[in-house]
Amino acid sequence: MNILPVIFYFCSLKPTPNNAFMKLYFLFTGASLLFFSLQGIAQKRAVVYHSPAYTVFADGVVQGKNSATALSGAEIVSNYQSPANQFQSPEVEFKFSINGKDNEMIAGQNHHFILAAKNGNNETSLIKFGTQVADDKSVSATGYLKPGASLKIRLDMRDVLGAFKKQGYYVCFNGDKIYKDDFKGVFVAGKPSPLMWDFNNLVNHPQLQLKDPDGDGIYETTLVFGNDNNRTASSWKLSRDISAFPQYHSGYKITDALYNLALEEMQNAVEPDSTFRTGKEWGGVWTRDISYSIILSMAVLQPKVAFYSLMRKVKNGRIIQDTGTGGAYPVSSDRMIWAVAAWEVYKVTGDKDWLVKAYQIIKQSAGDDAVNVYDQKTGLVRGESSFLDWREETYPKWMQPADIYESECLGTNVVHYQVNKVLAAMANLLKDPSAASNYNSRAAIIKKSIHDYLWQNSKGYYGQYLYGRNFRMLSPRSEALGEALAVFFDAAGPQEEQRVISSTPVNAFGIPCIYPQIPGILPYHNNAVWPFVESYWAMASAKAGNETSLLRAISAVYRPAALFLTNKENFTATDGDYAGTQINSSNMLWSLSGNIALVYKVLFGIHYNENSLQFNPFVPKALAGERTLSHFKYRKALLDINMYGYGNIVKSITLDGKVLKAGVIPADLEGTHKIKIALANNISSGKSNLQPSYFTAETPVVTYNSAKLSWPAIQGATAYHVIKNGKYVSIVKARSYSVSENEYAEYQVAAIDKMGVSSFNSEPVQVIPANTLTVIEAESVVPKSDLPYQGFSGNGFVKISKTENTTLNIPVNITENGTYAIDFRYANGNGPINTENKCAVRTFTVDNNVAGVFVLPQRGKGEWSNWGYSNTIKVQLPKGSHILSLQFKEANENMNGDINEAMIDNVRLIKLNTK
Questions:
Q1: CB atoms inside a 10 Å sphere around CB 583
Q2: What is residue 646's predicted lDDT score, i.e. its pLDDT?
Q3: Pairing label, strands 149-156, 218-225
Q4: pLDDT at 366
Q5: Cβ–Cβ under 8 Å, residues 541 and 720
Q6: Residue 602 DSSP symbol
Q7: Cα–Cα 20 to 30 A to 20, which of 2, 222, 547, 682?
Q8: What is the C-alpha to C-alpha distance for residues 58 and 50, in angstroms, rounded to an integer?
Q9: Which residues contact 444 (CB under 8 A, 6 or more apart)?
Q10: What is the DSSP string of 536-557?
């Protein structure tokens, strides 16, 4: 009943002997009721977390004009509207791309057009490939972008086609040659959507390819702008039966509702064949997606589906690396997170048959990795950053797949550290102490190397990766998942884990995948927050005992789920919006798994040991109160858990009324039991490094000529670091730098902005005196004029495959003792640069001694005249004759299994100046 109209009615009556008392009574009673009513409203809107960006209440979320309210634990309403298309600039920035490469003009030099036509139909002038065109209209004069505005883009390719006809190739601005037979099409890249700056993925967007139907050399395409959907659903109401899963209740409607939403979406994420679906928009089983999800909560809720999904990602007894950069494995090597997920399934279920099966698969896969990706010199593991597999989103544009293979990054190394710990634990359970000792030793080496090479003591967190070519440096950017896993998996020591959580930069809407951001790259991994990463950050924050960081992380997961009414894959770091990223999906498996993990693994602190379950709860004071988790299954036991209070210290814990020592549930417990946990109401210390979104300067493009390095001006740069052989040697304001021509050196340049923040280092420029270089050309038995491909440097090339030249011996005569950097010039046209699984891999020996592994990644589908260099291996060579050998070994199998081939043009040996 609403008492207020009654109160106001009696207060409005004129006082009479009959109603004076009644009026006074209702005034008092009404005031009391109003007070308690408002107090109730205040309690309902109790603030859980507040920042200038948004507020989380006990029953909802408010972000500016947008709000979400939980009407119950089974229903949420939201009025969220994406700002992505509101007040959007009408300026279109773009450049053309042959074969999906950034090859029209130098970096930063683009075409510009203003969408100003009153009828919405715009058309560019005829643009000549390689010649910049800028619109002279004013952005301010045209207002905002009109939804549905179209742009017809017209490109003159006659010079390019003429060069194909005249000489068989076209020379790009940077000297690269595109051969006629390698021409696959011309595309347009840029912004805003539907344009994109991801050159490697242009081929997957047919509307971004220009066509020449009449063959006159004029290519065209028409794009429509501003038509993206900027609204999500306005309400969610539980529509599926979730009674088979643990039931969660607390005094916070929004957390209860989001837990139930995640359970419902989890059911949506199970395919008819009992494997996980990655997301609403993404079908199929993906190694890293399912593995991170299983670790978070799917081993608990869907152990059988986890088992089926994990086995779907096994081929020939080895874990599958999903398709990726340069043809996947070993350029990408984070497939081993599968092992950690498999171990989680065992700890949850205690299934000994699964333990034996998983151990053999992990052991075989780790054995391959020891050959292909373990760096014996640094002790680190090579390969792309875990889950950050969209090259330009986290790497400088100049890095080719071979460079990414050579990089040694935080996240993937922490994964491999944990894998070796898992292998050791499995080996001990299977009575193989010798193997366990070996794996523990390997884990210890990786842990020490992570600290020695990646730890930044001045910043208090780890760097992103080592990168470069013959001389590598540490990228100082933070890498969110790697930082979280380093703490969560104990790769960081006790002191480091405290500093990582308090020092790693976080933004208003969550922890960005990397920080600072890369300019000119649209959000996806760059300038983006991923809820599953945020969940790992929350678990790491809880482990470190940092309440400030934990509450911020929990809120950063709940805000988007409540407002968007689904567990999105990602959102932009700058404004928290889901529509601003390049690709997104609702009902994402790892996002919903992370949402559930906040309840299981953070609030209740449920931790699985090999033969027990343990409680290490952490409830921030802002979420204090009583909460229950009923029908929680642990092996043959069913647990009804009641917990009250706040903090991360357990005051008391009982099992069926009896004190439970150390909060540990034995694995042999059976039947239904009641657990009661009382927290000590302690407040944990800690801070969080909240930083605004920040973009570095562009990466310089450096050229070398006549003993001088030079580079174009970089916007926002106040000075430039000059780097020689991986060390800073000078800071200059000029855009050139004189160097010696008489010694070998590798130079890079980085732009420094007014805040002293550096860009990525530029692509290494090598100064190679003639007396330091040896090139051995391949010879072909086929006459050069009859060879099907072009661009090779000598009289031919050699094909290596699983059946041809499985051992390729190359004699070489060394005239001077020294350290030599060796690489191969090769072609691999078996797939695009960004996906598929046909990277060629070969073991390299010198005089029958293994010196390392060469990877020869894909360089473009069908582009067999596109030649480039492999990774580099440094070897000590004494004066005299030697045999260099490329050999195909069993451990060199890629993820394709059938195609593992490349063309070898030459081998290059460079004597390094090691003084």
A1: 13
A2: 98
A3: antiparallel
A4: 98
A5: no
A6: I
A7: 2
A8: 12
A9: none
A10: HHHHHHHHHT-HHHHHHHHHHH
Q: What is the pLDDT of residue 715?
A: 94
365: left (phi over 0), alpha (psi -120 to 50) or beta: alpha
Cross-strand bridge partners of residue 134: 112
* Range 396-435 burial, b when 16+ CB lie within 10 A, else e: bbbbbbbbbbbbbbbbbbbbbbbbbbbbbbbbbbeebeeb
Residues of the chain falling short of pLDDT 50: 1-43
CA 656/CA 674 separation, integer angstroms? 5
- Provide the token pair at 443: 């884990």
Tokens of 236: 């969610």
Tokens of 721: 């670091």
Q: Residue 901: which of 838, 807, 853 has the closest Cα?
A: 838
- What's 448-489 look like in SS3? HHHHHHHEECCCCEECCEEEECCCEEEECCEEHHHHHHHHHC
- Scored b (16 or more CB within 10 A) or e, 119-128 reads ebebebeebe
Burial of residue 891 (CB within 10 Å: 0-12, 13-18, 19+) is middle
**Strand positions, DSSP E, 578-710:** 606-608, 612-615, 625-634, 637-645, 650-655, 658-659, 664-666, 671-679, 689-690, 703-705, 708-710
Q: In the prediction, which pLDDT does 11 show? A: 40
As a whole number of angstroms, the distance between CA 86 and CA 80 comes to: 13
Query: CA-to-CA distance for 615 and 688, rounded, in angstroms?
Result: 25
- Please name the amino acid found at residue 172: C
CA distances 332 to 301, 373, 406, 761, 855, Å, are 29, 9, 10, 22, 11
Question: Are β-strands 571-572 and 528-529 bridged in parallel, bridged antiparallel, or unpaired?
Answer: antiparallel
Nearest to 555 by CA among 43, 44, 68, 41: 68
pTM of the model: 0.90
For residue 738, the one-letter residue type is S
Secondary element (H or E) of residue 194: none
3-state secondary structure of 724: strand
At how many degrees (to 10) do helices 4-12 and 20-44 cross?
A: 150
First to last CA, the chain: 88
The CA distance from 881 to 904, in Å, is 21
Rounded to 5, what percent of the chain is helix, strand, coil? 30, 30, 40
CA 693 vs CA 209, 389, 503, 698: distances in Å = 33, 22, 15, 16
Q: How far apart are CA 309 and CA 269, in angstroms?
A: 12
Residue type for position 27: L
Spatial CA neighbour of 362 closest among 433, 416, 285, 281:
416
Q: Among 694, 693, 690, which residue's Cα sits nearest to residue 49? A: 690
What is the C-alpha to C-alpha distance for residues 40 and 46, in angstroms, rounded to an integer?
10
The pair of structure tokens assigned to 54 is 């948004």
Which helix (H) or strand (E) element contains residue 312? helix 303-312
Query: What does the pLDDT read at residue 911?
Result: 96
Least Cα distance to 201 among 464, 389, 328 occurs for: 389
What is the pLDDT, as a whole number, of residue 83?
84
pLDDT score recorded for residue 685: 83
- Sheet of strand 472-475: strand arrangement: 408-409, 465-468, 472-475
Asked if 586 and 280 touch (Cβ cutoff 8 Å), the reply is yes
| φ, ψ at 227 (rounded to 5°) | -105, 10
Beta strand residue intervals within 739-805, DSSP E: 745-753, 765-767, 773-777, 798-800
β-bridge pairing 121-128 and 149-156: parallel
Neighbouring residues of 437: CB distance < 8 A, sequence distance ≥ 6: 424
Helix axes 494-503, 480-488, angle to 10 degrees: 150
Residue 28, pLDDT score = 42
For residue 141, what pLDDT is reported?
A: 55
